[in-house]
Design goal:
elongated; 18% strand
């Protein structure tokens, strides 16, 4: 229930702090006093629309805060746990701050939350019934939710909704896999050709660099061989000149003979011997190079053909290295292999869809059976309630129709009504405003009983009602107040007299000429005065006072 409400700088309300009792709380006031403003403040706490027009002149923001006592509500506690919010044993504070920019911030137990989260939680705390909400009787979703609440379909609906969500996800996955397979089928021949070319090429990392070096060698093989032969000839000498090695040997001997006279000559001789050994090794390597150098036009052509193939593949695939070509080949291989995996995935999804569809069909059938079993009882309960509201000959009916499969099953619900009991038609077509109000109140009474809503607010639900009907409607609202907290904004004294508490909204003008709204809880004498005003208008007569006392006394006796 709503324990307290604090409002600052909200439209015509400068500052307001008020506590509320349990049971039926009546709110009255003259037209234009600000009753709808108070309701608008509560609506903000339920995630209602916020804009800059709600901010008063006192500052750049307005603040609305409500304290709720939720008691033991396991489902609501689970929502708090899911949102990582403090439960505080069901004592909850909701705050909404709106700025002149039109932006708003939402807080639950001082923790910032999204507007969607606020709406989800507050929908389990407060139900606001405005005077135009009778239009919801024509809303298919509302009609279905009302019947489901009465029939106790919560768990089946959760199961059905979960299966529908899973079915939608699997269908989306199947569409994506099928689309991918379709694209792959179109590209399959091309990908297979590309892969075969790369696979047949027997690519090897570093091969192109090796071929380029070999091609350079083969292209200059004749010149290289001639140069090596010449170098070898110069070092080996001939008939006219000794070899370099023989010359160095003779020089070394000559220097060795001088060593007894010139000691340094011995060291020079040894260095020449070392150089002689190095030169002989160089000659050996020149000879080896010359012998290994082949002049082969066939090999040159083979190397250049291989290089041409590799260059062509690099260009075709827009890459720069053989390693990148290898990656491309492997990627094509994975793509061709993945098509088999995707096909298996598609088959698994198709099998899963059939299983989910079967489970959803079974859940929907159980849901239909439960709704069908409750429809007649619900219609009878509403009809009985309407009879107590001076519609003795009225008939209310609930009709189930088959609808396309959805998260709520395969049912659509119609509410039909006849004030005389003859040929009931859709409630939105065959009911007057007063009849619609009574139908909605009867439906709300059942909702309050079966949805365990802690607080319900009626905003002038008695519009178009008077006399004995108003008294009966007040009695019904009063009965609802014995099980839950009810706020009733009313212009009817018969309804106002039924409340456990009575709040009066007034409008005053400040010294600065600004109109402000205020609210106060009336004591017993003030309550008599207010009901007398509602009976007689601005001039309260003794007769009106007596009538007001009588109404209050009768209401107390009926409790």
């Amino acid at each position: 229930m709503l324990k307290a409400l604090r409002v600052k700088n909200f439209i015509l309300i400068d500052s307001l702090e008020i506590t509320f009792p349990a049971g039926l709380v009546i709110i009255t006031g003259e037209t234009g006093a600000g009753k709808s403003i108070l309701l608008g403040a509560v609506a903000l706490l339920t995630g209602g629309k916020a804009d800059a027009s709600t901010v008063g002149p006192a500052s750049d923001t307005c603040v609305v805060e409500g304290e709720f006592d939720c008691g033991a509500d396991a489902a609501l506690e689970a929502m708090f746990e899911e949102l990582d919010l403090p439960w505080n044993e069901g004592r909850i504070t909701i705050r909404r701050v709106v700025s002149t920019s039109g932006r708003s911030r939402c807080f639950i137990c001082d923790e910032p939350v999204s507007k969607d989260a606020l709406g989800a939680i507050s929908s389990r705390l407060v139900d606001i019934h405005s005077q135009h909400q009778t239009l919801k009787l024509s809303d298919p979703a509302f009609r279905l939710s009302v019947l489901d609440a009465y029939a106790g379909c919560a768990k089946l609906k959760e199961q059905c909704a979960a299966l529908w969500k899973k079915l939608s996800q699997e269908r989306k996955s199947l569409e994506e896999v099928s689309a991918t397979l379709g694209r792959m089928a179109l590209e399959k021949d091309f990908n297979e050709l590309m892969f075969k070319q790369l696979d047949d090429a027997k690519l090897r990392s570093g091969e192109l660099e090796e071929l380029e070096a070999e091609q350079k060698l083969l292209s200059n093989a004749e010149e290289i061989k001639l140069s090596l032969v010449k170098a070898e000839s110069l070092m080996e000498g001939g008939q006219e000149a000794p070899s370099v090695s023989a010359t160095l040997r003779e020089v070394s001997k000559t220097l060795s003979k001088l060593s007894s006279f010139v000691p340094a000559a011995e060291e020079l001789s040894e260095r020449l011997e070392s150089s002689k050994a190095e030169l002989e090794d160089i000659l050996s390597e020149i000879t080896s190079l010359e012998e290994s150098t082949e002049v082969s036009q066939d090999r040159l052509e083979a190397v250049e053909a291989r290089m041409s193939l590799l260059y062509s593949l690099l260009s075709k695939h827009s890459v720069r290295t053989i390693d990148e070509l290898i990656e491309k080949r492997d990627s094509l291989s994975d793509t061709l292999y993945n098509s088999d995996e995707l096909q298996q995935r598609k088959e698994a999804l198709e099998k899963s869809l059939k299983e989910i569809e079967a489970a959803l069909k079974e859940a929907s059938e159980k849901l239909h059976e439960k709704r069908a079993g409750a429809a007649g009882k619900f219609a009878a309960a509403v009809t009985k309630s309407l009879h107590s509201l001076s519609l003795e000959g009225a008939v209310f009916g609930v009709e189930l129709e088959t609808a396309p499969q959805s998260a709520t099953g395969t049912d659509a619900v119609n509410f039909v009504f006849s004030a005389t009991g003859d040929r009931p038609v859709d409630v939105s077509k065959g009911s007057s405003g007063g009849e619609m109000s009574r139908i909605m109140l009867s439906v709300k009474e059942l909702m309050a009983r079966y949805t365990a809503m802690p607080t319900m607010i009626f905003d002038e639900i008695d519009t178009g009602i008077s006399g004995s009907v108003a008294d009966a409607m007040g009695s019904m609202i009063c009965r609802m107040g014995s099980d839950m907290q009810i706020f009733a904004i009313t212009h009817l004294p018969q309804v106002a007299a039924k409340g456990n508490a009575h709040l009066l909204v007034t409008k005053e003008t400040t010294q600065q000429g600004r109109a402000i709204s205020k609210i106060k809880q009336l004591d017993s004498q003030e309550r008599v005065q207010e009901i007398a005003r509602m009976l007689s208008g601005s001039k309260i007569t003794p007769e009106a006072m007596a009538n007001a006392k009588s109404l209050l006394q009768n209401s107390q006796n009926q409790k």
